[in-house]
Write a structure and sequence with these properties.
- The complex is a heterotrimer.
- Chain A is built from 27 helices and 32 strands.
- Among the domains of chain A are: about 70 residues, Helicase, Ruva Protein, domain 3; about 170 residues, PurM-like C-terminal domain (Phosphoribosyl-aminoimidazole Synthetase, Chain A, domain 2).
- Chain A has a seven-stranded mixed beta sheet with strand order 10-12-9-13-11-14-15. In chain A, strands 27-29-26-30-28-31-32 form a seven-stranded mixed beta sheet, with helices on both faces.
- Chain B is elongated, with a radius of gyration of 16 Å.
- Chain B starts with a strand and ends with a strand.
- The model of chain B has no long low-confidence stretch (mean pLDDT about 90).
- The longest helix of chain C is centred in the first third of the chain and has 20 residues.
- By secondary structure, chain C is α/β, with parallel strands linked by helices.
- Chain C has one domain: Rossmann fold (3-Layer(aba) Sandwich).
- Classes of the chains: A alpha+beta, B alpha+beta, C alpha/beta.
Chain lengths: ~775, ~80, ~280
C-alpha cells in the first residue's frame, strides 16, 4: 500500500488508526479512498478534509468509514435526489400515514398498510442464494420497523436468457445458475420466516447477463396507533440493539452497491455479501412486534446498509438529539473486529430499538423468551453529535448534520429521442398465426412461472385470497394480481401487482415509466381492486453517463405524471444505479409494485374463463404499436412506436370496469400486456380449461395488430350473459364484442376466414412446460 | 479435546432427491460423465472427552437427534 | 362444556410460523386458543408467562420450520419436547386429549414417536419418516384429499368416509416412509388399525401420482392418526381453508362464497368430541 504512512496507529489496546488526510496529496486521497474501500470521489475526500480542518484534528478510521457509508449513492441518493424532488417527492396524497423506512398508507379507520420495494442486485450477482435471501431479510425489516406485521413478499427478478447459449465474460455466472440460486434463496428464507411470497415475476433479456436484478418488496399491516417512528423520542432513551450478532459479513455492502461490477468483483466482494439466518429473523419479528404493541418502545429502525453507523445517526437526527454509544458492548460473532468494522458491518437480522430506561428490563425479558439477543449499547443525549467510545477511549465524534447531509449532484443528463413508427423494422414472421402464438406462449418471458411459484409458500398465514395462479386445480393460468386479506375480522383486502416493461422504457423512457403504472393499475383493476398507492425500484446503469441519467429522468417523469393524474400515492421508493457490467448496462428497469384496495375480497375476479356461452369483450383501444413488444423481441423486430398511455382514458376505463364488477356483470377479466390479445386470451382459456370463439372483424385493424399489439389500457372481459346489456351501458369507454366462451379450442376468425385454431390442451402444454424444462 | 466426525447417510434403497437434483444441476452447468451424486451430511462435534467417551456420546447424539433410523444410518469417527 | 371453555395450546418455538392461522381457526369456532412458546411450558420465562400443559384441552402443533428444520424437519423441536416435557405430553395423550400436528407439526409428531405409535403411547425412536418430496423441491400447491378413516380418528368424526376435500399443502419433506424391510407389514398395520385418515387423490377421486400426490408418499398417504385416534398428523393445511373464499378456485364456485372451507370440519370435529367427552 502506498498510503500506509498516512495511517497512524493510536496507542490503544485495540486496532484504531487516525487517517492523516491533512498531508495527503490528491493522488494519495484517491488511493486512500480505494485502499480503505471508501468509494468516495476526490472532491468528496476534499470535502471531508475541509471539515476536519475546521474541527482541528485528523479523522479516525471509524469516522472516515462512517462518512463513506453515509455518503454512498445507496444511502444518500446523490445522483437521483434532484430528479426525485422535481417529480416524485411532490406527489400529494391525503392517505399517506408515513414516509419512513417503508411507506405507510391508510387501510381502514384503524389500520394502515406498509409497502416498500428495493434492489439487492449486486450481492445477488456475486452470490445468488445468499444475496437474494438477505434481500428478503432487509425488506422485511423495513416493514417491521414501522411496527407493521409483514404479510406478503414480492419478488420481481431479471436475468440473462435461459433458452440460449450466452457468452459470459470472466467471473460471470450463467443465467440458469443465477435463476436457480436466487429462487432458492427467496424460497428458503421467505418460507422459513413464514411470510408468503405472493407476487413478482421473472424477466429475461441479454442486457441482464452481467447485471441480474433482484428486486424485493414487502407489504405489512399495522394498527395506526402502533405506527412507530424511525427515531428516538428524546434524551434519556436507551439504544437497544436486538437480533443477530455482528460480524465481518457485509462490510462495505453499500459502497459496493454503488459501483459498477467488475471481473474481479467476486473475490473482492465476497465479504460484502451478508449471510442470512431466517431462524433468528422469525422470532425477531415476533419479539419486535410484541414490544411495540405493548407500547414499550419509542422508536425502532432496522440495520441495513451502513449498519450501526447509519442507524444510530439517523434515529438520533430524526429525533433532534445526539447519541453516545459504547461500541464494545455490541455482541460479536468473532473476536478481534476493529471498531470501524463493528460500526459499519451489515450483519443481518439486527434491529435498533429506542426505549426509556425504566422499561429496558421488560424488553430484555421478552427478547429472552424468544432466545433473541438484546443489548443496551448507548444513550440518547441532547445536542447534535454522535460520540463513540471503545473500552473508554473516544474514537468518534461527529456532527450529525455533516455526517448525514451527503453530497448531491446535478449531473448532465441527455435525453434520447424516443423511437417512432418511422424507425420501425418489422420482423419476418412465420406464415400462420398459430405458430406465432405458440412461439410467444413458450417464450420464457411469457411462459408459466409455476416452476418458481410452487417453490414459494404463497399461502402461509392463511390470508392469500387470489393466489399467483388461478383456475382449475393443476390446470391453472396466471393471475393478474394477488389479493390478501390482512385482518381476521374484515373482508377488506389488498391487491398487489407488478408493473414493469424495460423494453418499452429502453425505446421510450417516458412512455415506459408511464406504462409501468398503467400495467400495475390494469392488473389491480382486473381482480376488482381500486389502485391506491405504488412503490418502485428504479434499476439503471451508471448515472455518470449522461444517456443513462437521461433515461432515468424521463422514466421517473413518465411514472410520476401517471401517479399524479390517477391520484396514486408513492410513499416509498428505491433507486439502484450502476447496474452496468463490462457487457453494458441493464435495460432501464422501472419496477412498480402497485397496491389496491379491495372493498370485499369475496367479490374478487380471476382470469380463468368460467361459463360456456358468455360473451367476451375487449375493453380499450388497440393501436398499431409494436415498439418493445414480445412479437418484436421474439421474432427480431427493431424500433417501432412504444404504446402511449392516455391517462384520462385509463382513469375512465378503470372507473367503468370497477362499476361493472361491483354490479356482478363480470365473470373473468385479464389485462392485455405481453403478447397482446392472443396471449391474454390463451391464458384465460388455459386457466378455465375451456375454449373461446372469437371474430376479429369488430376490430378495425389488420389481424396481426388485433392479436399482438401491446397497446396499453386494455383488458379482456368475460361478461355474465344475463347482464350483457347492463355491461354495455355501464362501459362509457370503447368496448368491442369479440366472441364467446365455449368448446375445447381457441378459435379465432375474421368473418369467414379462420385466423387461428388451437386446442386449449396444446396451448397449456406450450405455456406450462418451458421453465420446467429449462430449469429442471 | 477431540473432534467426533459424524456422518449421516441414507440407508440403501432410500431415494436421494438432493443427490439427483444436484446431479441434474451439475449437468446443466456442462459437467459430463457424472455417474451418480450422493448427498451425505457431516457434523464435526468438538468434545471435551477422551476418544472412547466421545464415540459413545456421538452415537447417543445420533440416536437422540441426528439420525432417523427409518431412513438414515450413521457412523462416528474420532479425529 | 361450552366451546369457549375449550383451551387450545398452540405450541411454538422459533421458526414455527403457521401459529396465527391455527390460532384463528380455533378462535373462529368459538374455542379459546393461546399461542404458547415451549419455554413457557418449561418455566423458562418471566413468572407471569408460565403455563402448564395439563391446563389445556387440545394441543396443536402448527406448521413452519421449527428451529430452521436443521438436522431434519421437526427433529430439533421433537428432541426438545422429548428431553424436557416427555412426561407431561405422555399423560396428555394418555388422558385421550386431542393432539393435532399439521405439516411441520406432523413431522414433529413422527420424530417424537407419537405417530404412528404402533406400540404404546410414544415410541422411543421414530418408527416412520417424513422425507424429502420425490421432486426434491418445496411444493406449494392445492391438493385433493380423500377421507379414509373408518371412524377411529376423532378429528374427522363429522366427515363421511370417502368425502373429497380440497386442502392446500406447502412442504419440502412430506413423503411418508417406513423402513424398507418393514414397509409392507407396517402399511397393513396402519390399515388394520384404521390409522390412515387422508390420502391424496386426483379430481376424479382416484389415487394418482405427481402432481396430485405432491410428495410421493407411501400409498398416497397425507395424514394418519395413532391407534387410539386422538393424535393426528397431516401434511396439508386445513387451517388455510376454513372459509370457502380461501379455496384456490372459489371464484369458479361463487354461489357459496360465504360457505365453509373444506378444512373447517376437522376443527369442528375435534371441538365437538372434546365437548361430548366433558
Amino acid at each position: 500500500m502506498t498510503v500506509d504512512h498516512l495511517l497512524i496507529k493510536r496507542n490503544v489496546p485495540f486496532e484504531l488508526y487516525d487517517v492523516d488526510i491533512f498531508s495527503a496529496s490528491d493522488a494519495e486521497l484517491r488511493d486512500l479512498s480505494k485502499d480503505l474501500g471508501l468509494n468516495l470521489s476526490l472532491d468528496e475526500m476534499k470535502r471531508v478534509r475541509e471539515h476536519f480542518k475546521n474541527v482541528g484534528r485528523i479523522p479516525s478510521d471509524v469516522e472516515i468509514q462512517s462518512l463513506a457509508q453515509a455518503w454512498s449513492e445507496h444511502c444518500c441518493y446523490k445522483s437521483s435526489k434532484a430528479i426525485l424532488r422535481e417529480h416524485v417527492f411532490n406527489i400529494q396524497n391525503d392517505e399517506v400515514l408515513s414516509k419512513g423506512d417503508a411507506g405507510v398508507m391508510v387501510f381502514d379507520d384503524e389500520h394502515g398498510y406498509a409497502l416498500r420495494v428495493e434492489s439487492h442486485n449486486h450481492p445477488s450477482a456475486i452470490e445468488p442464494y445468499g444475496g437474494a435471501a438477505t434481500g428478503i431479510g432487509g425488506i422485511v425489516r423495513d416493514v417491521l420497523c414501522m411496527g407493521a406485521q409483514p404479510i406478503g413478499l414480492i419478488d420481481p427478478l431479471f436475468f440473462g436468457p435461459i433458452d440460449k447459449q450466452v457468452d459470459l465474460p470472466n467471473g460471470m455466472k450463467t443465467p440458469k445458475y443465477l435463476v436457480s440460486g436466487v429462487v432458492s434463496g427467496i424460497r428458503d428464507y421467505g418460507n422459513r420466516i413464514g411470510i408468503p411470497t405472493i407476487a413478482g415475476g421473472i424477466w429475461f433479456d441479454d442486457s441482464y447477463i452481467g447485471n441480474c436484478l433482484v428486486n424485493v418488496g414487502c407489504i405489512g399491516i399495522v394498527k395506526r396507533k402502533d405506527l412507530v417512528n424511525n427515531a428516538v423520542k428524546g434524551p434519556g432513551d436507551m439504544f437497544i440493539l436486538v437480533g443477530g450478532r455482528t460480524g465481518r459479513d457485509g462490510i462495505h455492502g453499500v459502497t459496493f452497491a454503488s459501483a459498477e461490477l467488475k471481473e474481479n468483483s467476486e473475490e473482492e466482494s465476497r465479504g460484502a455479501v451478508q449471510l442470512g439466518d431466517p431462524i433468528t429473523k422469525e422470532p425477531l419479528i415476533h419479539a419486535c412486534l410484541e414490544v411495540n404493541s405493548a407500547g414499550l418502545i419509542h422508536g425502532m429502525k432496522d440495520l441495513g446498509g451502513g449498519g450501526l453507523s447509519c442507524v444510530v445517526g439517523e434515529m438520533a437526527l430524526s429525533g433532534g438529539c445526539g447519541a453516545e454509544v459504547d461500541l464494545d458492548k455490541v455482541p460479536l460473532k468473532e473476536e478481534g473486529l476493529a471498531p470501524w468494522e463493528i460500526w459499519v458491518s451489515e450483519s443481518q437480522e439486527r434491529m435498533m430499538l429506542a426505549a426509556p430506561k425504566k422499561i429496558v428490563k421488560r424488553i430484555l425479558e421478552l427478547f429472552d423468551l424468544w432466545d433473541v439477543n438484546a443489548t443496551v449499547i448507548g444513550t440518547v443525549v441532547p445536542g447534535n453529535e454522535v460520540k463513540l467510545r471503545f473500552k473508554g477511549e473516544t474514537i468518534f465524534q461527529l456532527d450529525l448534520e455533516f455526517l448525514t447531509k451527503g453530497p448531491e449532484y446535478c449531473r448532465p443528463a441527455k435525453a434520447k429521442s424516443p423511437q417512432t413508427k418511422k424507425g420501425e423494422d418489422f420482423p419476418k414472421l412465420p406464415g400462420d398465426f398459430d405458430k406465432i402464438l405458440l412461439k410467444l406462449l413458450s417464450d420464457p418471458n411469457i411462459a408459466s412461472k409455476e416452476w418458481a411459484i410452487k417453490q414459494y409458500d404463497h399461502e402461509v398465514r392463511g390470508n392469500t385470497i387470489i393466489k399467483p395462479m388461478t383456475g382449475k386445480i393443476n390446470k391453472r393460468g396466471p393471475s393478474d394480481a394477488t389479493v390478501v386479506k390482512p385482518l381476521p375480522d374484515s373482508f377488506r383486502g389488498l391487491a398487489v401487482a407488478v408493473g414493469v416493461n424495460p423494453w418499452f422504457t429502453a425505446l421510450d423512457a417516458y412512455r415506459g415509466g408511464a406504462t409501468s403504472i398503467d400495467e400495475a393499475c390494469r392488473n389491480i383493476v382486473a381482480v376488482g381492486g381500486r389502485p391506491h398507492a405504488i412503490t418502485n425500484c428504479l434499476n439503471f446503469g451508471n448515472p455518470e453517463k449522461p444517456e443513462r441519467l437521461g433515461e432515468l429522468r424521463d422514466a421517473i417523469a413518465g411514472m410520476a405524471e401517471a401517479c399524479k393524474a390517477l391520484n396514486l400515492a408513492a410513499p416509498s421508493g428505491n433507486v439502484s444505479l450502476y447496474n452496468e457490467a463490462s457487457t453494458g448496462a441493464c435495460l432501464p428497469t422501472v419496477t412498480v409494485v402497485g397496491l389496491g384496495i379491495v372493498d370485499d375480497i369475496r367479490e374478487c375476479i380471476t382470469t380463468d374463463l368460467k361459463e360456456e356461452g358468455d360473451p367476451i369483450y375487449v375493453v380499450g383501444t388497440t393501436k398499431p404499436q409494436f415498439g418493445g413488444s414480445a412479437l418484436f423481441r421474439v421474432f427480431g423486430g427493431k424500433g417501432g412506436e412504444v404504446p402511449d398511455v392516455d391517462l384520462e382514458a385509463l382513469r375512465r376505463s378503470m372507473e367503468c370496469l370497477r362499476g361493472a364488477m361491483k354490479g356482478r356483470m363480470v365473470r373473468s377479466c385479464h389485462d392485455i400486456s405481453d403478447g397482446g390479445l392472443a396471449v391474454a386470451m390463451a391464458e384465460m382459456c388455459i386457466g378455465g380449461d375451456v375454449g373461446a370463439e372469437l371474430d376479429l372483424s369488430v376490430l378495425p385493424l389488420p389481424n396481426l395488430v388485433s392479436l399482438f399489439s401491446e397497446s396499453n389500457t386494455r383488458w379482456v372481459v368475460e361478461v355474465d350473459r344475463a347482464k350483457e346489456k347492463e355491461f354495455v351501458e355501464a362501459m362509457d369507454v370503447p368496448i368491442f364484442k369479440i366472441g364467446k366462451v365455449g368448446g375445447k379450442k381457441l378459435k379465432v376468425m375474421n368473418e369467414d376466414a379462420v385466423v387461428l385454431e388451437q386446442m386449449v390442451s396444446d396451448l397449456r402444454e406450450r405455456w406450462s412446460k418451458p421453465l420446467w424444462e429449462l430449469l429442471g | 479435546m477431540v473432534v467426533a466426525e459424524i456422518r449421516i447417510e441414507l440407508k440403501q434403497g432410500v431415494a436421494d432427491p438432493e443427490g439427483q437434483n444436484t446431479k441434474k444441476a451439475l449437468e446443466l452447468l456442462g459437467f459430463k460423465g457424472i455417474k451418480n451424486v450422493k448427498s451425505i451430511k457431516v457434523f464435526d462435534i468438538e468434545l471435551d472427552a477422551d476418544a472412547a467417551e466421545a464415540k459413545k456420546a456421538g452415537e447417543e447424539m445420533c440416536r437422540k437427534l441426528l439420525a432417523n433410523p427409518v431412513i438414515q444410518k450413521f457412523s462416528v469417527q474420532i479425529k | 362444556m361450552r366451546s369457549e371453555e375449550i383451551k387450545v395450546c398452540v405450541l411454538r418455538i422459533e421458526g414455527t410460523n403457521c401459529e396465527d392461522e391455527m390460532y384463528q381457526a380455533f378462535r373462529e369456532l368459538g374455542a379459546s386458543p393461546e399461542k404458547v412458546h415451549l419455554k413457557q411450558l418449561l418455566g423458562k420465562c418471566p413468572a407471569d408467562m408460565k403455563r402448564e400443559l395439563d391446563d389445556y384441552n387440545i394441543l396443536a402443533l402448527p406448521g413452519g420450520f421449527s428451529a430452521g428444520d436443521y438436522v431434519r424437519a421437526g427433529a430439533i423441536f421433537a428432541a426438545r419436547i422429548k428431553s424436557e416435557l416427555s412426561k407431561d405430553i405422555r399423560s396428555f395423550v394418555e388422558s385421550e386429549r386431542p393432539v393435532l400436528g399439521v405439516c411441520n407439526g406432523f413431522q414433529i409428531l413422527v420424530e417424537l414417536g407419537l405417530l404412528p405409535a404402533f406400540e404404546g403411547t410414544m415410541s422411543e425412536h421414530p418408527e416412520a419418516a417424513l422425507y424429502t418430496n420425490i421432486s426434491g423441491r418445496f411444493e406449494c400447491t392445492p391438493t385433493i384429499l380423500k377421507h379414509e378413516s373408518r371412524g377411529k380418528c376423532i378429528f374427522t368424526k363429522r366427515i363421511e368416509k370417502g368425502r373429497m376435500m380440497l386442502v392446500p399443502c406447502a412442504h419440502a419433506e412430506g413423503k411418508l416412509m417406513f423402513a424398507k424391510e418393514k414397509e409392507e407389514k407396517l402399511l397393513a398395520k396402519l390399515e388394520e388399525n384404521d390409522q390412515i385418515v387422508f390420502r391424496y387423490v386426483d379430481e376424479d377421486g382416484e389415487y394418482a401420482g405427481y402432481p396430485w400426490c405432491p410428495n410421493g408418499s407411501l400409498s398416497n398417504i397425507a395424514g394418519i392418526c395413532n391407534p387410539a385416534g386422538n393424535v393426528m398428523g397431516m401434511m396439508p393445511h386445513p387451517e388455510r381453508v376454513v372459509h370457502r373464499y380461501t379455496h384456490p378456485d372459489f371464484t369458479r364456485t361463487a354461489a357459496d362464497v360465504n360457505g365453509a372451507g373444506d378444512g373447517k370440519a376437522i376443527f369442528e370435529s375435534v371441538i365437538e368430541s372434546v365437548k361430548r367427552k366433558a
